Amino acid sequence: MALDGRIEQAVVGALALTRSGEGPPRLTAALDHAVFPGGARIRPTILLSVAMACGDDRPGLSDAAASALELIHCASLVHDDLPCFDDADMRRGKASVHRAYGEPLAVLAGDSLIVLAFEVLARAAADHPARAVELIKLLAQRTGAPGGICAGQGWESEPVINLAAYHRAKTGALFMAATQMGAAAAGQDPEPWEELGARIGAAFQVADDLKDALLTPEQTGKPAGQDAAHQRPSAVTEMGVAGAARYLKDILGGAIASIPSCPGEAKLAALVRAYAEKMTPVHLSPSAASAVRG
Amino acid sequence: MALDGRIEQAVVGALALTRSGEGPPRLTAALDHAVFPGGARIRPTILLSVAMACGDDRPGLSDAAASALELIHCASLVHDDLPCFDDADMRRGKASVHRAYGEPLAVLAGDSLIVLAFEVLARAAADHPARAVELIKLLAQRTGAPGGICAGQGWESEPVINLAAYHRAKTGALFMAATQMGAAAAGQDPEPWEELGARIGAAFQVADDLKDALLTPEQTGKPAGQDAAHQRPSAVTEMGVAGAARYLKDILGGAIASIPSCPGEAKLAALVRAYAEKMTPVHLSPSAASAVRG
């Protein structure tokens, strides 16, 4: 996909800022480790797809938004992997940042990536200051408290979890950021794009729950069975594999139906359909497939 | 001082944003714990003092800058206190955030405060978008990598420390942010204000080294002798108490001399002199005083 090249170039450009002065070399290396090689870069892909569906008249701003969003996602992975959260040894098939560089640099790498995300947007502001400010507000809202991914993770430290708020913040927030920032980068009102992001986020949550329950660490590049091990809420424990797979299909149908009217509407619907195909992991596991059929 | 009220009001307003939706209550409480009651709020005081010396024609923007800077400072304290860094039980005379709320919420509180700082600046942008963008760039530069406080802390994980870069980033960065953001909020070129911030930062580093070596935990509200315990570079171990006290005086003289020409120049010089008075802790300790005299 042509978007891949745009996203990697934008992320590489962002990380170059951390080498633009005399910084501590191991922290700089930890930042690279956290961001490269990337995963599927799904959030920035959705962001750029929405921007293009809306005309993408300021591609520099869209690229900055895409890389900023991916940096926040990478920061969240680094901090979520820390011993006090998932204590994950591996991420994307290699050592997690704290395993490779130690816990202090993992904390600092996450912090630095959050800062870098906002710096990238501020640096792209010359292109259109008002839109850049809107992008910074949207990204902050979907990252911090009370409704961003920090808050989402924070719900796991509560004695009683508000499940709707938890899922919306933990997984949904950065997908809502993706659709809304894509629209805002192209000068469109971000509000009507929230629902699409929320639905894609909910779909990814259910898909993740299915993957966590069904796939091996070799297939996902991270430890399996983490939801059960940490007693986290999961669509699979709530409604079983077959129920979760059906639910996933329903959400994706709703996502496509929610796409606001725009020049690239059909292309965007095709993209969501393609993700839906990729997201449904049941064909990877014969036992799960039979469970769904049965 | 009248500035105190402005700063508290701005910080209270910023924290109110974290209660503007359905967030996890313990994270919200941890954010309050991290920010209130404050310490001396020195960095925002310097920021507002410089803004006022430069005319302070957009007080809303100056207030946003002051609270954003204080939020970053509070975030850095929360993360620096974590077990993988200082493992501090106390901060500002009460339990550190991770002692009061656990390590996961301490990591998330620090992250959320960083995000909130940038959100506050973006929300103040309507007043003057170009200045707000400049403020976001300045704050990011002094917070992340390669030259901000994250990088400063990162130097402590290096096998060989670049001492000049370390001090400049670890303590100097937020004081340079204070003077430069104060000027930028008032529409002045921030560049000539860097030196004043750097010198005040250096003075605070030496004063901190003196306090760490001379004062008791009851006097500072945090553990004593941490530099020696963690084998951190310190002006006291490098040049002794008397040498460090002389060095502090020299730096502060240079700071006053470096103040750029502006309407409020004399008042600002008086403020730095007042800080110098407060900063020199030798009179608090009879043994140290005799060491300096001797």
Automatic annotation (TrEMBL), chains A, B:
Belongs to the FPP/GGPP synthase family. This is Geranylgeranyl diphosphate synthase. The lineage of its organism: Bacteria, Pseudomonadati, Pseudomonadota, Alphaproteobacteria, Rhodobacterales. Pathway: Isoprenoid biosynthesis; geranylgeranyl diphosphate biosynthesis; geranylgeranyl diphosphate from farnesyl diphosphate and isopentenyl diphosphate: step 1/1. CDD domains: Trans_IPPS_HT. GO terms for biological process: carotenoid biosynthetic process; chlorophyll biosynthetic process; photosynthesis. InterPro entries: Isoprenoid_synthase_dom_sf (IPR008949), Polyprenyl_synt (IPR000092), Polyprenyl_synt_CS (IPR033749). Its cofactor is Mg(2+). Gene3D superfamilies: Farnesyl Diphosphate Synthase (1.10.600.10). One of its GO terms (molecular function) is geranylgeranyl diphosphate synthase activity. Its EC number is 2.5.1.29. The keyword Protein biosynthesis does not apply. Catalyzes the condensation of farnesyl diphosphate (FPP) and isopentenyl diphosphate (IPP) to yield geranylgeranyl diphosphate (GGPP) needed for biosynthesis of carotenoids and diterpenes. It catalyses: isopentenyl diphosphate + (2E,6E)-farnesyl diphosphate = (2E,6E,10E)-geranylgeranyl diphosphate + diphosphate. It is an enzyme of class 2 (transferase). Keywords: Carotenoid biosynthesis, Chlorophyll biosynthesis, Isoprene biosynthesis, Magnesium, Metal-binding, Photosynthesis, Transferase.
